[in-house]
Structure formats: structure tokens, C-alpha cells
Amino acid sequence: MTTAALNSTSAPAVLPRTGGMRGALSDILWRRPQLLLLLMLLPPVLWLGIVYIGSLFALLLQSFFSIDEFSGLINREFTLKTYGDLLQAANLDIILRTVTMAALVTLASAIIAFPIAYYAARYARGRWKALFYLGVMLPLWSSYLVKIYAWKLILAKEGILTWLLGKLNLLWLLDGWLSLPIVGGNSLSVSFTGTFIVFVYVWLPFMILPVQAALERVPGNLVEASSDLGASPGQTFRNVLFPLALPGIVAGSIFTFSLTLGDYIIPQIIGTSRLFIGQAVYSQQGTAGNIPLAAAFTVVPIVIMGFYLWGAKRMGAFDAL
Amino acid sequence: MISAVSFKQVSRHFGSVRAVDAVDLDIVPGEFFAMLGPSGSGKTTCLRLIAGFEQPTAGSISIFGERAEGVPPYRRNVNTVFQDYALFPHLNVLDNVAYGLMVKGVGKTERQKAAEEALSLVRLPGYGARRPGQLSGGQRQRVALARALVNQPKVLLLDEPLGALDLKLRENMQEELKSLQKALGITFVFVTHDQGEAMSMADRVAVFNDGRIMQVGTPEEIYQRPKTRFVADFVGSSNVLPPDFVQRYSGQHRWGSLRPESIRVTRAAKGDGVAARLVGTNYLGATTRLALDADGLRLHAVVPAGVALPVEGETVMLTFNRESLHLMDEPA
């Protein structure tokens, strides 16, 4: 019976022809995969190449112009005067402050993110894993401004943190910290410590996710092999887990570092009146109308990130990719 | 004499699954011991219990007389060759091999010298600078072996180490592992689901099924005198004969086993023996395996190459010596 069915005349043709435009089009694309690739890549390449890189380049160009201090007009002649202005002590202060903050935020994010990512990658399964993703992603869904204002309330002198520490009789700890130079202030919400806390909170998911992805790719038997060969858990961490998670940490740090370098809203709402690079750019191109200096300021994070990536590559952070 | 590894009523349960169920086991120092069984039979869990990756739910484990429960893997002088080798991808071959010595604090020149020697032992001298990713499967296997041996373990555990290799390479590695074990005198415990591998390499074999050990013995004992139907079937695909059949030939109402090579096949429609119909042939090179149907009982026979074969559907007579019919312990 089966053979009869197989031999029946209604069997489909060996090479059936499809008719119509759609069939012809998909056949052409199948025969020329490069054409398909071109069609898919053209829009993003145009966007990135012209709109994004182009405007970045225009910005870079602006930084080689200068402003006429009397008339406030931009002098469109090539000069390095603006970069000279950038190196004034006040501006260097801004750069140093921002880079230090970005470095500290990155370090703290990495330290906090690692155990969370490790748990998610190695232990969380099913429901707990879903909860992990929800916990990490949910804050990203709510408005950034709402979160920052919420933190302003939390960190304020009359805020819940002060109240909680008061209840725990730990207010002396907070007061002691706030009386320190640089990191201290009237309250957490007007100190660099507050700025730091909020930066870490806001950028933490960008560190957790890549580290978790990197750890997920580490086969569990490498940890077992290390232990089998006599390595204590600490040695396994230093010699196996950390080096293999490093590409993830570097990827995460690119986010936390560059986002902190460029942010101008968090330090404006929470922190002291001293400027960060983002705020400097904002005020130079806005109120001050000094577009060349604003452009020169934006070049700073680009150069720093360039060196950062170069250094990371030199350290072999991308070898395991 | 102290056993290299001793299990006393060891169980390891995962929830309701009894991966290892009240196993007693003694491995003699210096022997090549194979744990054979289908997947999920508990053999790998037993290996992991020896390595320390698992802790027993009940029972006690001792390694060279020392109690091992609660001792973490990194404080056991036991090393493992993992199924997929588990080489560290970020370290070169030499650093992989030297890893165990490095974490024990052996100086750089000394540990690199030892690693180089271990690489020579597995016939990979001068491969130290390569990355694991640049090696073939067989080479990775050797590096994994060198990485374990460099620590001079009391017991070397091998978890299906030849599973990923192709046939030719596997046969070479079998011989090499065996001569290496003889030369070093280290106790080898080898997990495999391949009965041929277990038979050809091991001094003794434990056959696992459903978390229990069915039989322990030399390959010959296991092959010639299986105790249960499972062992007879799993080791060498013996013909398992039901009690009623066995009674006709031995007078005892017990399960029996008969090796396929013990059956003689004659192309005669009548005569002494069991009449059976040929239902299939399987060409194996040196021999041909015949599938036969003896009145509903499925039997296999092996005939050497060059003998004229009956055609499918033909009725043949099967004869065998009384001595080759083995009676099993398993109750009828």
C-alpha cells in the first residue's frame, strides 16, 4: 500500500517551479546572498556612516574653530586655541573630576555586579532566572528622571536613609562621612557620594548583563577541573573565572565608564555645584554659546575611551571573544 | 590490604532519583578498573563521588583508607580526565598542564619542567606554547591526561575520555592508556558505556544499571559468566534464554545465556538442534551476525566470513555445546 502511494502519479515534481514576482525575487536573493546582505546593511550603514559619524566629525571640526571673546561670534579658521582653553586649570579640574568619578563608578559596578551575575549564570534556573532578568531590566523600563528624583528624596537630609540610620543609631556614621572633604557635604543628596551612589545604581544593569553573559559561556566543568587540580575556590576565581569573565567586565565597563563620562543630568540633580564634562558641554553650547569649547570638551571622552579600549585590547581582554 | 577506593553502602539521590543506590565497591591499588553501564546508570555519579564533586547522601567512601566525605575536591590527591577535557581556553598547553602545580605554589621553572616532562610522557613534547583551541581532539585528550598526571595522583579518574575520538584514534589511545597505567602503577578508574573498551582495557569491570552494580569481575568472568540478564545482554549482546528453554537443555529452570559465537548454524531442514528462521544478516567484516527467530525467541549467531550464508527466510538448525550454555543467578 505504501509503495502504491509513493508511485502514484500525483507525486510532486522534483523541481517544482514557483511563479510570481515574490518567488522570482527570493530565488534571486538566494542565488546572490551578497545582494541580500547589501540590502540589509544599507540603511544602518547610511545611518551610522552619515548621520552619526558625520555629525561627530562636524563636531570635531568645530573644536578647531575659536570664539571671538568680544563679539561672541565663531571664527571659522583652523586654530588650536580652543584646546588651549580646554587645558586651563578650571577645565582640567572638570575633566579630572569626571574621569575619577567614572573610574570609581565602574569599579564599584564591577564589584557589585559580579556576585549577582555569577549567581544568575551558575545557579539561577527557571523561575529564579526570570526573576533575575526582571529585577535587572525593570529599572531600565522606568524613566531615568523619575529614578533620579526618587534617589534625591532617599538621599535628602529629611529622607528615608537619614531616618533609617537614625533609628539604627548610626547617624554618627553618616555625619562622620559627610564631614569628610570632597566626598562629604551638607547631605548625601548634595555630595559627590550621592552622585556616585546614583551613578552606580543607574548604570549597574549595563555591567551585570555582559558579565552574566560572559560567565554563562564559561563551561561549569572548567570550575570543576580547577578544583580537581587542587585550586581553592579563591584560586579558581583568580585563575579561571575572573580571566574568562574579563571580556564581559570590560564590555560592561565600557558602558558604565562612557555613560558616566557623558552624563549631565545626574550630577546636576544630585551632587555639588561643581561641573562634570557633560554639564560643561551643556553650559558651553547653551548659555555660554561657546560651541568650539563645547566640542573640545566632547572630544575628551572620545579620546579617553579610545585609550581605554586600546589598553583593554593590549591587556588581552578581547582575546576570549 | 587497603583499598584504593572503597564504597560502603553509598547512595547519592537527586530528589527522588536514586543515581547511586547502596553501592559497595572496592578498587584494588594499582589496578585498571572500569565502570561500565548505559547512560544514567550511575557510573559517572560514582566517579564524581570519588573526585569529590558530589557528596554521598548515605554511606561512606574512603580513599586509601582515609574517609572522604566532606573533603572538597581540591584537598583530594585524586585527579580527573574530563569527558570533554575541560582544558582552560585562556591558558596555553604548558600552563594548562602546570596548573595543578601552580596552585600548589611550585615555582615557575620547576613546574614548567614537570609540565614539559608530562607532555613528553603523553607524546606531545614541544606543544607547550599552543592554545587548546589549536589542538585536535586526540591531542587535547593527551593534554588533559598530562594535566592530571603531572600531579602524581593516587587515583586517576577518567570520564569517558575516548568518547569524542574517532575509531582509529580510540584504539591507539586504548593501548597507550593501558601501557601508561602499567608503567606508572597508578590506580585508574575508567567510566565508559562502551563494553568493548571496558573489556579490552580493564583488569576488572563493574557493570552498572539503575544506580546499582550488577556484577564485578574480570572481563573474562563478566563475558563468560554473566550473573544477570542485563549483564549478559549489555556485555557482548549475549543471547538471553528464558527458563523454559534452558530447562530443556540443562534440566534447570533458570535464565541462561549463550554467546552468539557459540552457536553453530547448519543449513539443514531437519536434525538435532533448534530450528530457526533467518530474519536478517549483518555484515561485520571478519564475521557475519545472523538474526534468527526460533519459534518466537529472537537469537543471534555469529558465523565467520567465507562460510556460505543461508538466505533470509530460510530455516536452519542451530546447535551448541551444553558447556557453552551459562546458567545465570537471576531467579526465574
Automatic annotation (TrEMBL), chain A:
Single GO biological process annotation from the record: transmembrane transport
Q: Which UniProt keywords apply?
A: Cell membrane, Membrane, Transmembrane, Transmembrane helix, Transport
Q: List the GO cellular component terms.
A: plasma membrane
Please tell me whether the keyword Magnesium is annotated for this protein.
no
Where is this chain's protein located in or outside the cell?
Cell membrane
Write down the Pfam families for this protein, in alphabetical order.
Answer: BPD_transp_1 (PF00528)
Q: How does it sit in the membrane?
A: Multi-pass membrane protein
| Source organism, top-level taxon | Bacteria
Transmembrane regions: 35-61, 94-119, 131-154, 160-178, 190-209, 244-266, 287-311
Q: Boundaries of each ABC transmembrane type-1 domain copy?
A: 95-309
| Family, per entry | Belongs to the binding-protein-dependent transport system permease family. CysTW subfamily.
Q: Which PANTHER family match?
A: INNER MEMBRANE ABC TRANSPORTER PERMEASE PROTEIN YDCU-RELATED (PTHR42929:SF1), INNER MEMBRANE ABC TRANSPORTER PERMEASE PROTEIN YDCU-RELATED-RELATED (PTHR42929)
Q: What is this protein called?
A: ABC transporter permease
Taxonomic source organism: Mesorhizobium tamadayense
User: Which taxonomic lineage is given here?
Assistant: Bacteria, Pseudomonadati, Pseudomonadota, Alphaproteobacteria, Hyphomicrobiales
TrEMBL record, chain B:
Q: Which UniProt keywords apply?
A: ATP-binding, Nucleotide-binding, Transport
User: Which terms under GO biological process does the entry name?
Assistant: putrescine transport
Taxonomically, the superkingdom here is Bacteria
Show the stretches that span the lipid bilayer.
Answer: none
ABC transporter domain mapped to chain residues: 5-235
Output the Gene Ontology cellular-component terms. ATP-binding cassette (ABC) transporter complex
Return the InterPro entries for the record: AAA+_ATPase, ABC_SmlMolc_Importer, ABC_transporter-like_ATP-bd, ABC_transporter-like_CS, Mo/tungstate-bd_C_term_dom, NA-bd_OB-fold, P-loop_NTPase, Transp-assoc_OB_typ2
Q: Which family does it belong to?
A: Belongs to the ABC transporter superfamily.
Protein name, please? Answer: ABC transporter ATP-binding protein
Q: GO molecular function, one example?
A: ATP hydrolysis activity
Source organism of this protein record = Mesorhizobium tamadayense
